[in-house]
Amino acid sequence: MDYLAAERERGITINSAAITFGWEGHRINLIDTPGHVDFTMEVERAVRVLDGAVTVLDGVAGVEAQTETVWKQADKHSIPRIAFVNKLDRTGAAFGRTVKEMWKKLRARPLVLQLPIYAEGGHGIRGVADLVTMETVLWDPTKIDGSAFVREPLVESTDPKLWEEAVRGRTALVEALAEMDDAIVEVFFEEADGEHLAVPAIALKAALRRVTLENKAVPVLCGAAFKNVGVQPVLDAVIDYLPSPLDRPPALATMRDAKTALIPLSEVGKLCALAFKVTHDPRRGPLVYVKVYSGKLPVRATLYNTTTNHKERANKLLQMYAREAEEIPVIQAGNIGVIVGLKDTRTGDTLVLANDTQAIKSNLQLNTIEIPSPAFFAAIEPDAVSEEQAIEEALRNLTREDPSVRVWTDEESGQMLISGMGELHLDIIKDRLINDFKCKATMGKMRISYRETCQAPGVASTVYDKEVLGKKSRAGCSVTLEPTEDPSNQITIQLQEDLADSLPHLTQEDIDQAIQTGYQSGLSRGAVLGFPLAQVHVKIDKLETFGAETTLGAISASVSNSIQEALRHADPCLLEPMMEVHAEVNEHHIGSVVSDLSGTRRGHVIGLYATDDKTAVQDTEVYSPPDSLHQDVDAYKAKQVIKAHVPLSSMLGYSNSLRSLTGGNGQFSMRVIGYGAMSKDRERSVVQEMRG
């Protein structure tokens, strides 16, 4: 599924891909999402349309920083999950430690369903012990595709040590389920006579499904995907424990005339679909990936986009198999498919049938997909004037594919700027422009996307007074700006009267929307370097109206102008993106790495913890197999993880520096945690650098 040239070259997933396949009489729609922090947007829009998820964990690295970020995204949408601990064939893999990290770092309740069975001498994994059915599942090492495996009952005489560990695991599994599910308690006493091993596998599977769907626990399986060991049981677990679309709560939508803010789609009945991804195919044109939540989507149907208020025709419907596609006549509710022929639809848009007058009239819309703010940007210049049009067209396609990519022109320099989530993200954009779209362009030096805020209160009153197309347009506004600790911006409207009474030609709803538009516009450009504002509280104290001369545009403009004027008197300053960094190094390198992070890179070291933290089973309340199954090696146990908060600007090129400091043995991961203040000296240096 990693079919892009850049993905194969780097060995990572960059672009989420979809594939549909059958397993044990069921239809599975699978979306493979990236794990790199720079491609968070790909994960966000995939998670938005999922019914369930398989979280693949690295058995060597354990739960990484980006895993925590993706886990929180799944938590936000209440996605039921199972976990697969991978790479147990590698030196340094530790199944038990990874399970404990799920409890401590992800705040999840892992339920271990399998134990790894290692080959003689501890060289590689050859199978798993199934704690639900009390069987061993062993793969044929001569079949590299993993297609041949044998299930046999687990008996004490064959492997007494494995039997003892499996009994402990089965006991822990039954007791953990009993804490969360009343039905399994009845089975335990009435059918199994209080014997853990006598609880039927079918009853355990039913209980596991219930607690998984309720997000009370996460079943954990294990294996080595590179050698295809443990893959079939994962697919079985998807069928057994993860929800079908019918098991999920109905999607919620907004309607203009609804009595409540959100209504379930089960009350709508007709077609309602969400566009969650757009890709550009050089032969077919734009491909719009949709999840159909209700009704069905037939081929050649005329659709209405309630987000953009445009009609478009679905010329073809495709079922995707990664890069390959098959034409289909209809997309049923609960399924994912691709529409060919939509020219204006973007990520997050809601689609209904053009003849569904009720949905169109009430402006039916599904909750849209959140788009993260970019952290890096760079200038892009065409190699020749003749290349400008091709580059602009390519960038239009790229921004439609990936909404976290933004393109704008700097007013002072006239340069075209492109922003993304990180160094790798911008590097991929450059590769695609040159290789996929055949553009001839040069990308400039990487820069950080800062934010601006105020350090003191600021008050301003302005009057917008202009003549537009021969018609007078006037409105006044008074605002107060204050700094706030909240990472997002806040607005408080404290007007003394209902403006609709004095402006009969406008509705209160339209006036409120105009204030919001002016608020967003005023915060979009700061007073220092023109970056968006953050951590600001705006109070709209007064709106001055002038009868028929007060238009919605005048209200928006007066609010925006007042915010900009107040900002100039509020001691504006820059904020820089802050990263949570986890650097994994050997013990004898801790001093040099900590010194580098806290000194040269202006970071704040939060703590230090060992990768082989052996917290007792009783403390973590999760079963873990003994060290004989861990395959831990001394060199790996000596690893320590340094946790620090560091400005993003200081992390540019850190991978090379860490390799140099640790002799190539160190590795790190990081994620954005917000924006922090910078010193005056640092701010002066940034301003001078940005302004040249």
Characterize the structure shown:
Helix 5 crosses helix 6 and helix 13 runs parallel beside helix 14 (552-568). The chain is of the alpha+beta class and 692 residues long. It contains 19 helices and 37 strands. A hairpin with a 6-residue loop joins strand 25 (406-409) and strand 26. 29% of the residues lie in helices and 32% in strands. The strands form nine sheets. It has an eight-stranded antiparallel sheet. Strands 24, 25, 26, 27 and 28 form a five-stranded antiparallel sheet that branches. The chain is globular and about 95 Å long. Pfam families: EF-G_D2, EFG_C, EFG_III, GTP_EFTU. GO terms for molecular function: hydrolase activity. This is Elongation factor 2. It comes from Phycomyces blakesleeanus. Residues 1-246 form the Tr-type G domain.
Structural class: alpha+beta
Roughly what percent helix? 25-40%
Report on the biggest sheet. 8 strands, antiparallel
Distance between the termini: 44 Å
Which shape, going by the Cα principal axes?
globular
Number of helices: 19
Low-confidence stretches: 613-637
- Amount of beta strand: 25-35%
The strand order across the widest sheet is 17-16-22-13-14-21-18-19
Count of β-strands: 37
Q: What Rg do the Cα atoms give?
A: 28 Å
What descriptive keywords fit this protein?
692 residues; alpha+beta; eight-stranded antiparallel sheet; five-stranded antiparallel sheet; 29% helix; globular
In short:
By secondary structure, the chain is α+β, with helices and mostly antiparallel strands.
Protein topology:
Layout: H1 5-10, E1 17-23, E2 26-32, H2 40-47, E3 53-58, H3 65-76, E4 81-86, H4 95-105, E5 110-112, E6 114-118, E7 125-130, E8 135-139, E9 149-153, H5 160-180, H6 182-190, H7 201-213, E10 218-222, H8 231-241, E11 252-254, E12 263-264, E13 272-281, E14 285-294, E15 296-298, E16 302-305, E17 310-313, E18 316-321, E19 324-327, E20 330-332, E21 336-340, E22 350-353, H9 357-361, E23 365-366, E24 376-382, H10 388-401, E25 406-409, E26 416-420, H11 423-436, E27 441-443, E28 447-448, E29 451-454, E30 458-468, E31 471-483, E32 490-493, H12 499-502, H13 508-522, E33 536-544, H14 552-568, E34 572-586, H15 590-600, E35 604-610, H16 617-620, H17 634-637, E36 639-647, H18 654-662, E37 667-677, H19 680-691
Parallel strand pairs: 3-4, 4-10, 5-10, 32-33
Antiparallel strand pairs: 1-2, 6-7, 7-8, 8-9, 11-12, 11-23, 13-14, 13-22, 14-21, 15-20, 16-17, 16-22, 18-19, 18-21, 24-26, 24-27, 24-28, 25-26, 29-34, 30-31, 31-33, 34-36, 34-37, 35-36
Helix pairs in contact: 5-6, 13-14
